[in-house]
Design a protein that fits this description.
With 230 residues, this protein is of the alpha/beta class. The chain is built from 5 helices and 8 strands; from the N terminus they run αβββααβαβαβββ. The protein has a domain of 136 residues. The strands form 3 sheets. It has a 4-stranded parallel β-sheet. A two-stranded antiparallel ribbon has the order 1-2. A hairpin with a 2-residue loop joins strand 1 and strand 2. The chain is extended, with a radius of gyration of 37 Å.
Length: 230
């Protein structure tokens, strides 16, 4: 059972409650007054335009989801018997385009199509070589572009099979065919990712290798072939 409160304490508690109630009314009055627009000579400093909403909040538009289609294939590795199929009857030209005929519609329908070019491209086909050190017909670059590829990764264990000259000729032939190349460079400015616009989405393409045939990583200069462990 709880103890009864003496009359003096009940009276003091009632007076305190009255003071708290009056204080609350006073604070409400001040708050209400501060929310009214200030006026000078009867003119409001914060007029409300007729028909306009006074709300300062705005409805944020939901970002539109963006997407793109990507087709990526494995290595394009031209062994000698593959080159023999592409070689013309007089042995002076190589046409690799028929080899891509069945996949070309798929590549061309994609927003971005990427390949891996495993072997260096010869500068003029005067120094062709195959396994284990490659320098393959440069016409492969044109066939890659016609098939629908947008770019290729070029860093591999075969990147320097034809030396720095082979790396330079590879990049030159790809550029002439309109093909981006990631993983090899002939200058510091050319090194790094290759960026593509795929249906409004910016895509970075990187290519690296962790070994080279007959050479060590990092290369000298380091940007010549991109290393997995720079």
């Amino acid at each position: 059972m709880s103890a009864l409160t003496p009359p003096q304490e009940r009276q003091a508690a009632w007076r305190l409650a009255q003071l708290l109630i009056l204080g609350a009314f006073f604070l409400l009055a001040i708050s209400f007054q501060s929310q009214q627009p200030t006026t000078i000579d009867g003119a409001s400093l914060n007029p409300v335009t007729s028909g306009a909403s006074t709300s300062t909040s705005s409805v944020e538009e939901t970002p539109r989801a963006r997407s793109f289609t990507l087709v990526a294939s494995g290595e394009l590795l031209v062994h000698e018997y593959v080159a023999d199929v592409a070689r013309s009857t007089d042995g002076t030209q190589w046409d690799f385009s028929p080899m891509f005929s069945r996949v070309a519609p798929v590549l061309q329908a994609a927003d971005l199509a990427l390949c891996h070019l495993e072997t260096p491209l010869s500068a003029n086909n005067n120094d062709l070589s195959y396994y284990p050190g490659f320098s393959v017909p440069f016409e492969l670059a044109q066939a890659i572009g016609q098939a629908g590829y947008d770019g290729c990764s070029a860093a591999s264990n075969h990147s320097l099979d034809a030396g720095t000259a082979g790396a330079a000729s590879t990049l030159s032939h790809l550029e002439n065919a309109g093909i981006g190349a990631a993983g090899m460079a002939t200058s510091p400015e050319q090194a790094g990712p290759v960026f593509y616009d795929a249906n409004g989405v910016t895509v970075a393409h990187l290519s690296v290798t962790d070994l080279l045939n007959g050479a060590t990583l990092p290369t000298d200069p380091a940007w010549l072939v991109a290393s997995l462990d720079p």
